[in-house]
Amino acid sequence: MSIVEATAQLSVWGPITLFFIGFISNFSNMIIFVGVKTFRQSPSTFYIMGQSITNLGALIMILLQSIPSTSGSASSVSCKLIMYFSQVTAPAAMSFLWLSAFDRWACTSRSTRIRKLSSNHIASRLFLFPFVFWSLICIPYFLFCDLVPPTFNCIYTNEIFAQVSLYFLDPLVAAIFPLIILIIFGILTYQNIFGVTRVHQDLVRTRLSITRLSTWEQQMTKMMISQTLLTILCTLPRAIFFIYIMAIINEIAMKSVDELEIIYFMNQFTAFIFGINFALSFYIFLLFSPRFRQTIKTHLKCQFHLTNNQVAP
């Protein structure tokens, strides 16, 4: 199989695979974290719900772009809508992951003042912020993207915004900056958990009122750290690719056909790896949290009345 064929196959089957895997994952997250009372007591639930919603939106945009009749090249309206919502959903999903990482850092901090930042009240106030913020920031994509002759590809119609998007919004906001934020809060949370001997006692004494809730907060922290590690691994190739493109942007016109084919393939491949961020959160929670698996099993038994019946003598 040639590189061109591999790129074509990946551009078609990659989005379809991510969508079906991600739909089950994110829909399951929304059902479990809303349906189980214990999860609703954690501030991270707000961020997981927001992330699941935006993940589904991002996966839908990825899928639509792979279908010729609904892709950005189908019409001027579809071009504007696809570009706009693609730029809104993906950064919003990453923003909810930042908030989850920040919440876990605050939750595990020794400082009482910092731990107060991890609360349902604050999480509920911040829930709408990523939606509103990115909806406003990405308005130029709706205004300055259109089908441009003679090729009628969906590209930028404003040269200044094209430069801003190419050198700032796409590489920094979409990949490099989220990667730095997640690494920083991941390291800080790890230090809070494993570098301080009295973290658990401080959490139980000053923040949590019952032992069961304390246990769930610990499980939520493990789940969020696991998801953060996955996101770092999936975002790193995309960030490296963006840095490479920025370095050779003025030399692309001089590249040979074979070199351009490799660049296009790496673009599709790193985009697919980055798309895993939006599809696997539920499976990561299942893999790294035994209590999460047990809670789902108990919830399903209650929903479908599968509890064991015992006959007394």
Give the neighbour order of strands across the main sheet: 1-2
Quote the average pLDDT. 83
Helix/sheet category: mainly alpha
Residue share in β-strands = under 5%
Transmembrane segments: 12-34, 46-64, 84-102, 122-144, 164-188, 229-249, 269-288
GO molecular function: G protein-coupled receptor activity
Domain G-protein coupled receptors family 1 profile: 25-285
InterPro entries: GPCR_Rhodpsn (IPR000276), GPCR_Rhodpsn_7TM (IPR017452)
Layout of secondary structure:
Layout: H1 3-35, H2 37-40, H3 44-65, H4 76-107, H5 112-115, H6 120-126, H7 129-137, H8 139-143, E1 145-148, E2 153-156, H9 159-194, H10 199-206, H11 211-248, H12 257-275, H13 281-288, H14 290-303
Antiparallel strand pairs: 1-2
